[in-house]
Fold these 2 entries.
Entry 1:
Amino acid sequence: MDCIFCEIAEKSSEAEIVFENDKFVAFLDINPVNYGHTLVIPKTHYDNFLTIPAEDLVAMTKLTQYLAGVVKRALKADGFNIISNNGNSAGQSVFHFHYHIIPRYENDFHMRPRTIEYKNTEIEIYREKIKEAVTKYEGILNG
Ligand code: 5GP
Ligand code: ZN
């Protein structure tokens, strides 16, 4: 399978790696939205947030928490965004699961999507749709 992040994990493509262990790699995004924009990936290929095994997701999230703190300190950032784009519609362009760590500075840029409004009782309809699905799929959560 042609996957640039698998290639980076296997070292057949170059990247500016800032951290690596047996399961994960973190490297600089080649098209950063701020200097030091870092990507965290599992070495094993999973398409997205839903398909990575939960145990690996927990380990990767812990690692991302640690790395976000490190990046923030190293670059004297005021804050950071942790982002995961999932699916074409959400802006995912590399279909190998990853977290973005984006260092942020006061007044650097706006990253808020547009907001919409619920009309009348629409919010209740959406609450019910999701609650029903939560009940239906509860078995998955409880194993
Ligand atoms: P996505 O859009 O899937 O959430 O994020 C993919 C990210 O990977 C993008 O921000 C893009 O700039 C970065 N990217 C794509 N190809 C490469 C590459 O070959 N090397 C590095 N370091 N980053 C890449
Ligand atoms: Zn891959």
Note: The chain has three helices and five strands.
Entry 2:
Amino acid sequence: METDVVTIDGPTSSGKNSVGFLLAQKLGYQYIDSGSIYRAGCILILKNNISLQDLEKVVNIFKNLQIEINGQRFFANGEDATNHLHDPEVTKIVSAVSAIRQVREATKIIQYQLVNTHNTVMTGRDIGSEIFPSARHQFYLTADVKIRAQRRFQQLVAKDPATKFEDVLKSMEERDLGDSTREVSPLRIPEGATVIDNSSLSVEATVEEMLKHIHAQN
Ligand code: C5P
């Protein structure tokens, strides 16, 4: 039997992860944040001191990447990478690395393998548009950039009180621009996706809205 995939795409800090996780729980599906796959590869690039100019080595990291997901823990090549996925050094290189065509090809194979045996909610930038274009339930989640920056700022300032809102906003605008203008699989609204602006919606309210769409389409 073919597995069911619900896709959620959207820009950074649009609430995809919290929403995707809760939606998966409500549906009894596994949850996969595809950004974590790119981030896990970046952790290994940094750990092995690989230069981003060394395309072959960068791509090989992704070709050999083994991902396992156990609840909220994310394992890369057997090691628990969960606590390092959002390290600032990782965030700094992830957009450039994920813009490499061969990296995306290798990651696509990992994504197909991960949904092979489980119904899945998957979040990312190109999940509805490129990876699972025939998925029945596709969403595009967004929110005003200042609100998204405020959400990210609150997470970061809790770890580092010296964090400045202006820097967070600037880095978010740069990442939005990079993700939506890159040549390979740019961030865009998948054809037929339901667009939800959650600038003033809670995670729970966003998930309720999605469940209404899913049940109406079933
Ligand atoms: O969602 P998150 O911020 O963790 O993703 C990190 C980066 O990985 C994004 O800025 C984007 O460049 C890349 N990404 C991607 N395609 C996906 C998921 C993430 O290009 N499906």
Note: Residues 27 and 80 are 26 Å apart (CA to CA).
